[in-house]
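Case study: Probable membrane transporter protein.
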Amino acid sequence: MTSMGILFVGAGVAGWIDAVIGGGGLILIPLIMAVLPSLAPAVALATNKVAAFSGTASATATLLKKVGANKKQAALYVPVALVCSGLGAYFASHINKEVMRPIVIVLLLFAGTFVALRPEFGQNQAKGTVVSPARKLGAIALVACIAMYDGIFGPGTGMFLIMGFTAILAQDFLSSAVLSKVVNSSTNFGALVVFIIGGHVLWKLAIALAVANIIGAQLGARTVIAGGAKLLRIALLTLVVVMSAYLTWQQFAA
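Here is what the predicted structure looks like once written out:
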């Protein structure tokens, strides 16, 4: 019961973090593996993915209702995200995580430095900006790459989507956050299908964690709506620092 209580609280916190900026897996996956050390890594990842999908989908529904999103854009990106995340999950066992980790650290530091030095970035919608065919193709390529990354490795998926959509589509962080939640729900689902087919999900634990994750995600979605683009900028910079430190520690501890 104590272990379940710890995991339930952890899943709630992870749901809040995922809804605000992404990165909840950095909390929940290590927590599952620490509390239940006998679980195979694939089972821990798959069980976390059930909770992550449930919470992200819940937050997405709330943000779509309160903020809205470009439905044409979402319809374009969702199939790409589903297919590419599924491919990523399928090939995950063949990719060396030790090689990916330093690449992600560099990308995180670049993103954080860019946002820190450009305080106006993502704070306002660029009025009159036409989303050209080239920008649309760029956004599709972005979604394909990040979705595959989510299936293979995962940390920071939501943040990378927000950064990419803001830069390519010239919109504010809040608009990008809503669109990223739609895409992130799809990437989670695509990877989850592969895990389910592989029989890796521990369903009783997954359902309990999904409930907690949904509660946290609903609180997180309301936090985003109340805080707007300024809150997302602070959350993004905080996540960059935390994730960079965590992944660097993992790299040298491995």
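For the exam, be able to explain this: The two ends are 31 Å apart (CA to CA).
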